[in-house]
Each structure stands twice: as C-alpha cells, then as structure tokens.
C-alpha cells in the first residue's frame, strides 16, 4: 500500500530530492511531454525520461526513467519524482516500476511548476 503526504513543499524537500524534481520538470519541458520523471539510484546517479508514445511502444515517464536506470546497472533506487500538468498521481503500473527497484523509495509527485503535491511511500 502507498501513503500520500500532500503537505510537502519544495522548501521542505531534501536538496537531493529537490534536484530530481527539477530534473523531471526540465525533461518534461524540453520535449513537451505529458510527464517528466527522474530517479536517483543508490549510488547517487540520476536518470531522467519523458513519456514515450510511439505506435509500437508506450511508457510512462516513470517507467522510462526506471528502464534507463536498470539498463545502466542501477542496484536500486533511493527516490523518484514525476512531474505532470496538475500533479496527478501516476498509475499503478508506473508506481510498480519504481517499487520493483526501490521498494522504500519516496515517489515525489509534482505539478508543472515543480510544486510537490504528494509524496507516495510504500
């Protein structure tokens, strides 16, 4: 089960968590995607991705960011962030991708301004 804490703001975030929100936001803006996401692995490396919507392949931004981390040999995830227009929580499949690699990683959900609307935990 996940819990949502909707009282978080960018000012209350750990500086490293704030960085992945900024990275997710800039990735989304750069490609004009519906969502941007970023993850930080347990070695401190970050991976960012945007929504992939091709005729033969569809991935949420979170799924794509997790796939980038896995394909780069990430041992696990410390944190994840997703940014979309309204700060809407991601679907179950996207959350599951994060949980596969980081069962206890907080998942920051932010709107297009970067304001964190919720923090999902396991």
Could you explain the architecture of this structure?
This protein has one domain (about 5-120): Cytidine Deaminase, domain 2 (3-Layer(aba) Sandwich), CATH 3.40.140.10. β4 and β5 (about 60) form a beta hairpin. The strands form two sheets. Strands 1-8-7-6-2-3 form a six-stranded mixed beta sheet. With about 120 residues, it is an alpha+beta fold. The protein has three helices and eight strands; from the N terminus they run βαββββαβαββ.
In short:
This protein is of the alpha+beta class. The chain has three helices and eight strands, in the order βαββββαβαββ. The strands form two sheets. Strands 1-8-7-6-2-3 form a six-stranded mixed sheet. The chain has a two-stranded antiparallel ribbon with strand order 4-5.
CATH superfamily: Cytidine Deaminase, domain 2
> What gyration radius follows from the Cα positions, in whole Å?
13 Å
Give the terminus-to-terminus CA distance. 6 Å
Beta percentage is: 25-35%
CATH 2nd-level architecture: 3-Layer(aba) Sandwich
Task: Write down the CATH class.
Answer: Alpha Beta
Number of helices: 3
**Residue-averaged pLDDT, rounded?**
92
- Major sheet: order of its strands? 1-8-7-6-2-3
According to CATH, the fold-level topology is Cytidine Deaminase, domain 2
Which structural category fits the helices and strands?
alpha+beta
Task: Tally the beta strands.
Answer: 8
The dominant shape is globular
Specify the helix fraction band. Answer: 25-40%
How many domains comprise the coordinates?
1
Unreliable spans: 6-11
Major sheet attributes: 6 strands, mixed
**N-to-C order of helices and strands:** EHEEEEHEHEE
